Amino acid sequence: MQSTTTASNDPTVPVMGYPGAEFYVLHIIGLVSLGLSLSLSIFTQVSLMKKERTVFTRPIGERLVFYLTISDLGYCLNHIIDHTWMLAISYHPPDIPCAIFASILNLFVFSQSLIVVFTAFNAFMMVVKEIKVELGKYDWKLLLYAYGIPFSISLGVAISNHWGPSGAWCFLDKRKPGEKVLSIIVAAAFITVFFSNIINYGLVWMKIKRVSASMATTTSQAKYHRTAKVMMLFVAVYIAQWWAYIGYAIHGFVEVQPVFWVAVVSTFSNLGGLFNFITYTFVKKNQQNVRDSSSDEGQTVERRTKSYRRY
């Protein structure tokens, strides 16, 4: 009977930074940033659900924040267990738990990325094409796209048995022959998504500035532009969260990344809850400004109506 090698006693997958202080610094930084992110994601969720129990009646900005915080909660809880396990035993978890952690990590990281891709695409369609993207009842089209694709990828890699110890935490198994190819595919996918979002961001802002400068903005266009600016905020915080990983991935095409790069990635990538909270704050403020503006317009119309009646 063939014996099964576990990650915890496999010398072919050395644990990054161990033995040495870098190992503890890497995982403690990860746990601190994940703890902060988790706390703010919970706070954002509670704030969103305080007034209404269903999220589907909320404006698109709040719904997107809700979906992003759901992904961040799953990401944080999963990654906290992974980091804690490695700190406790100074090795990767055994094969099966490690594969589960890696699969869940991929699911929630890619779901966040795809939600932001949608926001950039939606803003582009509203401003450049002046077309509203329909999400379907209960946003089923968005949810199927944002979670169905990452789930299929996680399942496919799991079936091929390529989830496992990566050195820093559980992700792509470095013992497998296809690990390098899969790592390149993942890095290329992230880089493509990242720069696609930047391009969409630039196109939308140029169109908004050009139309605004012409002083010919219709009421419909103004509404689309206001919504698009909120959508672009999601792209901006996505760039702030994942810029370090993009630099890390590009560096990886040249040489093996140092522990310092991994620590920087672990810090910024793990702060999704903080960035989502910032987004939610701006979305809430924007909606309040819209309500105040609508209220002012209503009061102006009412005053004019009364003056006409007196006349």
TrEMBL record:
Main location group: membrane
Location of the region described as Disordered in the Swiss-Prot/TrEMBL record: 292-311
GO molecular function term, any single one: G protein-coupled receptor activity
Protein topology in the membrane: Multi-pass membrane protein
PROSITE patterns: G_PROTEIN_RECEP_F1_2, G_PROTEIN_RECEP_F2_4
BP GO terms, sorted: adenylate cyclase-activating G protein-coupled receptor signaling pathway; cell surface receptor signaling pathway
Keywords on record: Membrane, Transmembrane, Transmembrane helix
Domain G-protein coupled receptors family 1 profile: 40-280
Domain G-protein coupled receptors family 2 profile: 23-284
Localisation: Membrane
Transmembrane segments: 23-43, 64-81, 101-121, 142-161, 181-206, 227-246, 258-283
One GO cellular component, as annotated: plasma membrane
Protein name: DgyrCDS1099
Lineage: Eukaryota, Metazoa, Spiralia, Lophotrochozoa, Annelida
